[in-house]
Amino acid sequence: MYRAPLKDLDFDLRELIGETALQGCPAYADYSLDTAGAVLGEAARFAETVLDPLYKSFDRDGARWTPEGVRAPKGFKAAYDQYVAGGWPALRAAPEHGGQGMPCVLGVAVEELWAASNLSFKLCPMLTQGAVEALEHFGTPTQKALYLEKMVSGEWTGTMNLTEPQAGSDLAAVRTRAAPDGDRYRIFGQKIFITWGEHDLTPNTIHMVLARIDGAPPGVRGISMFIVPKVLVGEDGALGARNDVHAISIEHKLGIHGSPTCVMAYGQKEGAIGYLVGEANRGLEYMFVMMNAARLSVGLEGYAVAERALQQASQWARTRVQGKPVGASVGASAAAPATIIHHPDVKRMLLTMKSQIEALRATALYAALQLDLGARHADETTRAAAQVRGDLLIPVVKACSTESGIELASLGLQVHGGMGFIEETGAAQPYRDVRITTIYEGTTAIQANDFIGRKIARDGGAALAALLADADRELAALDAAGSPHAAAVAAARDAAREAVAALAGAGRSVLTAWAQGPERAFAVSVPLLRMTGHVLGGWLLAKSAAIAAKRLAAGDADADFLRGKIASAQFYAAHVLPQAHALARVVEGGASSVLDVDAAVI
């Protein structure tokens, strides 16, 4: 049974981020920690009482394809209707379109609860949110008037339609075409891996589709974005005829069975009616607005599912009696067996899960804060710097959280021993569900290549240097105040700096090195990205531990929770941060062992 980690979320929002963080953003003048607490309390109730009870049945029953359309699992429609009635789809949308205008940092905290309690459910509104953001940025006034209010309310859903059978992640290979037809277009082609591309939850779905206008330039320069409704919408907003777009099948997947992953066919007859978004041939640029939102959202799924796995594993370890802990005397008899949470390696696994989840959660919320400041801060200089930092952190959150999510869900299964491999215990489902998260919305390698190629090389590493400089100042202050963890983080940070410098080469900047040989950076980009994630997580956990220690010293009554924060930082410094040093050695000298090997011998 899942329980929302409200204490952890409150700690991060209240202590690590703080209420003053958004005071420079007039759009968030009504936001407060009391508001955040009330929202999270209601979100926890919905997650625990509505979504969690459907978690196993959605996995067991799954979505179904029929000739009449895709059918969601039993109970999904009722849960979605409650979700809409609660106003949840509108949480982060702009007030002018019916939204509540809450900041991204609160939205990320809420989304964690949806992802942990029922990932299949969470994926549907996630795609709608991305489509809403794209229309808010690039839609015409008419398009916004026709679609946004009903998407923001949840009356209609939305999707992203990017890849195709022959394209995969190479969007330059997209072949779906758009034939001009007056002030609209007719779309012909096929899209694959479309999450919630077809369902029976709402009367309409608004597809955001990448396609090439006939005669457009080749490659990514010729891609445009189109609105393609499942059901055509009249000028008065009324639904009309069914459009020529259909799900012709759904995939049979390892996990997230309740979420249909569709193969979408456009234009099997006269062509699906589509409407150009923004300017022609700028579709990929527009789609990145949706993809950035989706990448942050997918990133939090990694640690959210790991949180669920941790709760299951911890409960199992506290009740499973097996063996006597080495060197311990537990119970009335020295030979008495004990619950396995007393075994050293079980404690190690649980602390591995706990410490990394807390680090990843803090990093994601910090990244979300940067996006809020980048979008809404009143000062232009602050806004620009925060946006650059947020952009830098997106691939870190997406890749590190999902890679760790898989590892931690696997550890949760391991805690169960042989029973973890048995479906009835429920330990396997988080592992199966989270496995996709390193793949969709860009694989880990795509995130890492983006991190080093677009986010570091574009400014010679200035944004990363500024972030590490801020960490330097805080770590120095923590160390001066007697933090037992700051020195370990600082050492990992120094190793990371040296590794990036070594990758660039003596006397060369990152930008110069990139221009002369990006393949060397690509060969070690994933280790570099994960190294960065470990360092950032260590920094934020050291801050958390210092805050917890101060509250304990002041006599705070929640002593066990605060001691847990200190224990997480201590364990992370001893068990996780050393991995940053090892990864630094890979970044410094690992490229040749990849590039010098002929593919024929692999």
Written overview of the protein:
- The structure is a single chain.
- The mean pLDDT is 94.
- By secondary structure, this protein is α+β, with helices and mostly antiparallel strands.
- The chain has 19 helices and twelve strands.
- 50% of the residues are buried.
- It has a five-stranded mixed β-barrel. It has a two-stranded antiparallel sheet with strand order 1-2. A two-stranded antiparallel ribbon has the order 8-9.
- Helix content is 56%, strand content 11%.
- Helix 1 (6-17) packs across helix 9 (344-376) and helix 9 (344-376) crosses helix 18 (559-589).
- A hairpin with a 2-residue loop joins strand 1 (64-66) and strand 2.
Q: What tags apply to this protein structure?
A:
602 residues; alpha+beta; Butyryl-Coa Dehydrogenase, subunit A, domain 1; Butyryl-CoA Dehydrogenase, subunit A, domain 2; Butyryl-CoA Dehydrogenase, subunit A, domain 3; 3 domains; 5-stranded mixed beta barrel; two-stranded antiparallel ribbon; 56% helix; 11% strand; globular
